[in-house]
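Record format v2
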Amino acid sequence: MDERAARIADFIEPLRVAPGSAVDLARDFDPRYKAGLKKQDGVDLLRAGVALLAEYQERLAAQNTYGVLLCLQALDAGGKDGTIRHVMSGVNPQGVKVSSFKVPSTEELDHDYLWRYALRLPSRGEIAIFNRSHYEEVLVVRVHPENLVRQKLPERARGKNVWKRRYREMNEWERYLTDNGFTVVKVLLNLSKEEQRTRFLKRIDLPEKNWKFSAADARERRYWDDYQRAFSEMLSATSTPWAPWYVVPADRKWFARICTAAILAHTLMDIDPRYPEVGEEARQDLLAARRELEQEAPSGAAADPYAERHPSAKGGRRSGHGRPAGEKRGRG
Ligand code: ATP
Ligand code: MG
């Protein structure tokens, strides 16, 4: 397992924004990077990543101590939906909560700007995914300042330091969450302008994709450079040791998916959730319950059909401590 963890850590390291570094998205990150892999490698890697996530998510839920928040940001057609669908395809839906954040409602605008995100945080044992996140508050809100006007902020909360202050507030909020058992990890799906153009055209050309395209998406594209600047500043200011940003190359969907799966897997491996072990008292209860159940065996049936079929199973019997005298398995 340690070897697997080390391989994953190496794989995602080039994508991580070093805390404190000044990032220029266009200069420092290539949307077409694929780590020398081929699409076929991607199929196997994604399958392995999905299996790993399923295993860790089960442990996270069983331990019920930690939670994970994955924030996904991208420009339109960046592939957030497909990434979520593929990366989470193997995990138990009961342990995952996906929330999409759109233009805020009147009720949401009547609260502080982090309120609606706080409502959708994971509980212990859960993985929450934010499809768009509180980072919209320094992205779309910054690129289109009329959004800030709608937030009805008091004078001093919308002065010229507003973005710096928001970075600090979000860093502190994430620190608070981390300190209390909720790990935050952030992924920007980094799409090139040309790949976005291609994907938009596909959505227009194929009738079954038309519903995915809106004229607003094309309008937003005109603000490309403003978004790149806002992304760069956001990455520089809010990639922290406790809640790092990863910039995932998104021009190849298959590569974006394995990267995101690897980042989430790395986060879970770092938490290293464990199945709870029962204490001595609870173990005695288990043994008593087993004796009772074994006595209920109908004639001709094994006392413990499960143990009969799985001779190596030791559930309830302390492994390596032998079995108390007189307690015999499979009698019946
Ligand atoms: P898709 O298009 O794949 O369904 P989407 O996330 O783009 O997914 P849309 O309904 O198209 O969903 O767009 C949501 C819109 O809401 C985006 O344009 C986004 O910028 C905007 N938005 C999100 N958060 C805020 C916010 N806090 N203030 C203003 N606008 C926001
Ligand atoms: Mg959209």
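Confidence is low (pLDDT under 50) at residues 318-332.
The two ends are 40 Å apart (CA to CA).
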